[in-house]
Specification:
The chain is of the alpha+beta class. It has helices at residues 16-27, 66-84, 106-110, 127-133, 157-170, 214-218, 293-310, 355-371, 395-401; strands at residues 9-12, 33-36, 52-53, 96-100, 123-125, 145-149, 153-154, 174-176, 183-187, 190-196, 199-202, 206-208, 228-236, 248-251, 257-262, 265-269, 275-276, 320-324, 327-328, 335-338, 345-349. A hairpin with a 2-residue loop joins strand 9 and strand 10 (190-196). The termini are far apart. Pfam families: DAO. InterPro entries: FAD-dep_OxRdtase (IPR006076), FAD/NAD-bd_sf (IPR036188).
Amino acid sequence: MTDHQDADAIVVGAGIFGAALANHLQQAGIGRVVMLDAGEPGRGTSGSGAGFVGYWTAGYMPVPSTDDYALEDYGVRFYRSLSERGKPIDYRGNGSLFVATSEAGAPRVAKMADHPLAPAGTRALDPLETAKVTGHLLSADAVTTAVLHPGGIQISAGRATRALAALAGAEGVEIRSGAPVNRLLADDRGVRGVRTPAGDLRSRTVILACGAWTNELLRPLQAAVPIARVIASRVVSPPSGVAESSPTVMVPEWNGLWLREHRGGITWGNPDGYAPLSAYADRIAVGDHPRVEELVDAMSAALGPRLDVLLNGRDRSVAAWTQGVPCYTPDGRFIAGPVPEVPGLHVMAGDNEAGVTHGPGLARMVADLVAGNAVDYVDPSVYAVDRFERRDMTEDEILNAAPEYE
């Protein structure tokens, strides 16, 4: 290190983005890496994630991209490798199942079987086959058609994040929990470090991986990125004999319902339990974990009767629930790379509720950019901060511009 730096790189945030990035920075030979978080690794939005990872670009996500597909494939292989190395991430390779429950919903699901990016082994299922592959979690009478992506996997998002943080620590990354960053330090030459309650940390390389709180640090530098923060709810239902071998279930026509096995029961959710963070700004401070019970009640009321028909007598009641704050972008793609206005400052933001899937691949890309390595597996310009004509969009404008599912 030169110029009295305290670190060769500082990572702000220890969610899935930050923890994966810390690992990749270390592998890229960056030197001394320090990762800071206001709480504990994996206890924020990443810890509230449902933990299903798949090839969403192959017909499900509204923005098809071979770059996103490369990130998805990397994520699947990355978590499989972690599991094979004995890391406790609750890995299961059960696939992703896309289900239609009506003739109106069938065309969107059916076309996924022939999508050009469909993973190997993708196949259409009739109602009886659908019931069987889920261990009779789903009722055949409620299904019109389905498509199985066998490459999809399931993990515990919180445990995976904590495992990555532990791995980073074992490889030399300094992890400081309970260390919020109050402001970025910068001058006309670029970033110079961060200010924390315990004092300043100096580095010419800082990467923001702090999700919903990214712009709280960027705005004083006139360098905000266009992300809209949304509270997202996830329900955990009591054990009801759900098979561990069941794939993740996605029902696009039900406003993007998803559900998967969780400790013998199911965990489930959809945007009926979501709301803009701004609607609750007076109740949630910067960095706080949201606890807005009325959103869970609304989701349960909207989905409950339909779940009673779809699920084969399984319990879908609310035994527990959690919430996180995913961030959406105007074009449905992630934001990752250098911040043009501030040399040495990078950002990973705009998870579009798919950060667990794409986080490892984005971390690899950003680590290579920081290290000055060639990036030939994705096009970094697809995720560049400066691709937007406007970065001062309001959160309402961003949500209105975001691409919708078909």
